[in-house]
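Figure S7 source data.
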Amino acid sequence: MKFGWILSFVACALCVGCERAEVPAYKLSAELTALAKDDYDKPDELRKQITEQLEKHCGTPLHPKLIGHPKLSAEHLVRGAAVYRERCAACHGNSGYGDGPAAKTMSPLPRDYSKGIFKFVSVVDGSKPLRDDLRRTIYNGARGTSMPAFGLLPERDLEAVVDYVLVLTHRGELESALREAAVDEEEEIDDKLAQKLADGVAKKWIVPRSKIIHPLTVEPPYTWESIEKGREAFAGANGVCFKCHDRDGSARNLLEVGKDPWGHEGRAADLTSGMFHGGATSLDIYRRIYGGVKPMPAFATGYPKDPDMLWHLVHYVQFISGARRRDVVEHSILPKVER
Ligand code: HEC
Ligand code: HEC
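Tokens for the predicted heme C complex:
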């Protein structure tokens, strides 16, 4: 009897031990780690101050807080953090810098949330995404990348992990804002400044309706005529898309497209693979073309004389999207494209 009690005590102590070992504290960002005396006369002091403010506004992995949502239940965020550690941290990293142990060999890399920038969104270039945009990607995954679909998670877990991604995102944004204020603007970091910057982060995420992409025109019918117009704009004499995506849309020649916002060489999408990273509906594809996917520029104002052109491009992209499977890229079914 007594022995059993001791055993369970030992088991319990062990358990608490592993729980602790499994939940590391948030780590410093690469920028904050690299901060040297040249940047700021007391880098260690600044790192300490920023870490304290981040903890105050964003909490810890065991007690997270979401900037701008003080009333969100602690239990909800604790749940989100637990789901995240179990399902996402291996790729996205415990602190959300996209540097989990499984990330190294992936292309594209898992998202580093800390910049507050996302790819598959329903808003115009430069706007923060809607919460629903993040939810959609988490629900559906990003087909053709390592990002899995989590649509089978229980509803409560899904909602909680979306909010926890926002915790990590806002934490990264607040950290940059604090660092820039101290280093670039030589401001003293105190509670007042940190509160002001945290409020600034929250404000940016209140997205006005005017930022949401609404198609300029109603989708015209999917006809050969529409596909042909799209082909011309994609790969014809005045076409632009082929410069990155290749004439046949396969991007197989790995044309240089510039760096993405995370500082890595970008890669144009293979539009013939049948797998759209950001969703395959007409509206998904329209939004990608309208708003861009860095380093792909936004084409919102690309065709002022013919606003239907964005839909023709959508139709052409949909037409070639199954090309690799249908094995027609090299064959005759595709409208003729000069090579
Ligand atoms: C096996 C690795 C892996 C796992 C596990 C994983 N992700 Fe991802 N995730 C990725 C990759 C890779 C990308 C980048 C896709 C791209 O850039 O096209 C990504 C992108 C994202 C994005 C950014 C979408 C955008 O619009 O920019 C979000 C949000 C996200 N993941 C959330 C999650 C959440 C939440 C979980 C856990 C429930 C999770 N991921 C689990 C690999 C993973
Ligand atoms: C400067 C190079 C560049 C140009 C020009 C360009 N793209 Fe892109 N495109 C990209 C990159 C890079 C991506 C993002 C791939 C990723 O990270 O998922 C992309 C992604 C896309 C996607 C999303 C695919 C998906 O998996 O969801 C579509 C659709 C697309 N491009 C269509 C077009 C069309 C149509 C045009 C011409 C109007 C065009 N692109 C012009 C570089 C470019």
